[in-house]
Amino acid sequence: MSITHKPGRDEGPAPEDTRDARDTGAAETAETAAATGAAGAAGAAGAVGGPATGGGTGVDAEPADGLGAAGAQLSTQPVDTLNSTPGLGVLGWTRWMWRQLTSMRIALILLFLLSLAAIPGSLIPQNSNALKVEAFRKAHPDVSPLYDRLGLFHVYSSPWFSAIYILLFVSLAGCIVPRTWQFVGQLRARPPAAPRHLTRLPAYSTWRTDASPEQVTEAARKALRGRRFRTSLAEDGGSVAAEKGYLREAGNLLFHVALFGLLISFAVTSLNKAEGGRLLVEGESFVNNVTLYDDFAPGTLYDADDLQPFGFDLESFSASYATSGPEKGTARTFRANIHYWNGVDGKPVKGSIEVNHPLSIGGEKVYLIAHGYAPVVTVRDGSGQVAYKGPVPFLPQDSNLTSTGVVKVPDAIDKNGKPDQIAFKGFFTPTGDPSRGPISLFPDLAQPLLWLTAYHGDLGMETGVAQNVYQLDLTGMKQYQLGTKTGVNALVIKPGGVIPLPNGEGSLTFDGVKTWASFTISHQAGNESALISGACAILGLAMSLFIQRRRIWVRAVRGADGDTLVELGGLGRSESARIADEIGDVAMQLVPDAPLKPEPDPAEHDGDPGPRTPEGAADPTSLTDDEGARA
User: Is the pTM of this model over 0.85?
Assistant: First the structure.
């Protein structure tokens, strides 16, 4: 009377076991071989070795006289019914290419290629930012024509990027559809009947009892159903088949479907998105109109008429910084205080925008991107008239907000009444020191200084070519000599200071400083579906990793001596001790209904040693022997 476990791998296979396993393994793919637990299958297609051990490492697949269907299709990998090489003719090659395209290996390769193809789009300026593309062309005139031919200035709409994307779609669809149908078929089918030789399973237990086979199988059905197994009673009533862990394959399919959904979401977002930026100085307003953006990058299918009617005023901007310690100058808070309205006749509502806390309005989001300072200047020309008056945004260059900027005065007139365009170029330091040069010592406005050099001539604004308002093209400009005694060409002024131009050509007055803030207005269609798909992908991956597909069979046969031989066998898709533990638990549940019958003493039989306890036998209350622990 015993509960036995399958001997370890070290004992080696019987010759017929090895032959049968080799014959079957040659026809299986890597996943199916792993699914059936073939011992020695290291994930490569087909090669299997010796018999399964008690450690749950696998089992030889023997369709003729071994496990048969019981050990097959523990996964939903589509069965390969085609020859490994294409037949002659167009149809044969077409079927072969389709089989290759829809294999998981090709899907992974395409996914890797897609990630590589996206790299140039992040390194090379795209046509959505025309100014950066133009600057790149000027800086790299030799490679720009090649980049044009390769479509590197519009990577995400290029034919080669689209080809990879579409092939990945097709490949994933070809992987998912057949696996889904096979999984549905497995859900509708009954668990496979018990194999002929339960002793070949990686986890195996047996004992003799006085209970009838019907009592044993009925108790087994109840016990397995209580453990949430799907059960099926054989037609002869002598065995029970049970299966559990379908959610593993469901998770696998969910992961791939979610990946497919992510690709669709990204495509929808890319085609229908719109994003634009706008810099506002304190007191300025913005209305959501394409002409009022500093830059606007719509998706291929986005229509500018789809812009929602809303707007906002930048009332003020507040920022605080650490004033001491190793984090001196580090920003503590950034807040843009605004009044916004939604709709043409919407009433203004007070609000604020902070970093990582965008304003949601009209189905779009307004993000606070950056901030800086805008010196307020008044420029008078040679005629004494005010040619320009207002704030001029300077762009930060470091963490202490040392900023550079340009003041362009295209409508200036010299003292002789002739047009003579004026420009100023220089630095702004919110906390500066004239003795240390144009370098800010702190990002807050403690001692603002303006460092400027003056020019006059032709700004080139009438050529029709777009210019960067923050840069000055000196091609047609001539520098003023501002220093009267030392010959210096730049002057430093504080708020209220004046820079006079030579020969009465005008002046610049530093009136004060305002703060500016930069905003990005983003319309992202498909974000919700991408989020849902991402969550489903994580859930599906977790299900496929942590849920084990497994089968258990219980057979009860009345022997010639009147005893009932009870056999339990278990098979898992992956190597795990869980199946052996589960077999032990089920056996312990059956013992009250099918109590062990003590084995007769061999000495009591004349010439008949009686049933012997197989090597490795254990007491039903102790399933922790070496082989059992590995089962």
Answer: no
